[in-house]
Amino acid sequence: MATLPALxxxxxxxxxxxxxxxxxxxPGFFYLKFPSVDALDLAERTLELSRRFFQLPSCxxxxxxxxxxxxxxxxxxxxxCIPSTGPGYRGVSGDCNFAGDRRESFNLxxxxxxxxxxxxxxxxxxxxxxxxxxxxxxxxxxxxxxECLGPYLSAGAAEEAFERSTSLxxxxxxxxxxxxxxxxxxxxxxxxxEETQVFxxxxxxxxxxxxxxxxxGQPGLEYAKGRTxxxxxxxxxxxxxxxxxxxxxxxxxxEILWEPVPFLPGYWIVNLGTDLYRWAQQSSLAAPxxxxxxxxxxxxxxxxxxxxxxxxxxxxxxxxxxxxxPCEPFKKRRRGSTDAYLGGPHLAEIPSFxxxxxxxxxxxxxxxxxxxxxxxxxF
Length: 379
Ligand SMILES: O=C(O)CCC(=O)C(=O)O
Ligand SMILES: [Fe+2]
Description:
About 20% of the residues lie in helices and about 20% in strands. The chain contains 6 helices and 16 strands.
């Protein structure tokens, strides 16, 4: 098993080490050490909070359901809802981008100084969000240093592009216990794969600049290392990291070689996103003769022997909803009518912090977890 690079944020040599860690012939995954014992403790407490949340009955969790109210909306004269984006709870298979997967999730946006945030342990998730945000921002600044990506990144990942960041802290619970094969992923037209594929989360690439992942240590996360040499296939490895085929069936190919990403105590697992890929790519295309790719590596979570369930907390570091791609050819990436870049399912703006019945979502989460399910009847 290949060992991934392990970095420290306060290392004076971070920028050059980062450059080596994100080499375009490397895995696109690396470890980043928690800055302190307290920070690690905060992550553990937040993970425990998420465990307690997922133990609640479904009827309580769906009160926090991601829906049109909490989704991100494409700005414009006639705003358009971007399905399955933004904060809120998605039940097992309830995320339209990952239908059939054995995963329920809850995404938290930034509280934005909400006065309704209660005292107590729920604050740990806000504090953990801020820790991740600050860490990812420091990583972005290190990436933009001349000793690292420098000119390849400067245009895309400017400070302003993150002023209204759409970052989300995800709580994820994988539960393989009650898997029904018929609800697993079946590749269209491929009988051989039918009823055989069960995923915690199917192969995908993350959006945004990077993801900081903390988990309960259970195995199952894997990244696409390459493809087998096959006379049948003329495909390059590009789709494994370009974001070009992000969440398409091409990512289910049996030719893809998967490599585990083991948990490393005291470290986040970091992977790069498709925004970083595009920005580096576009900046380098704009400067002829130089090309610098940053892998947004394809990855997945699969059940492993004796793993009945697994908890993880991906922090998706995302730019503003209206952040522009710096250069052609990808500027008009999604909707032809606008220059605004719109990202994928983890992305989007937090138009206002989601509220239900006039109550702050943190408060509802607090009530669900600490005051017990019956208290939610108040809402
Ligand atoms: O749970 C994990 O280990 C990875 C989760 C992930 O890749 C995602 O939510 O995008
Ligand atoms: Fe991911």
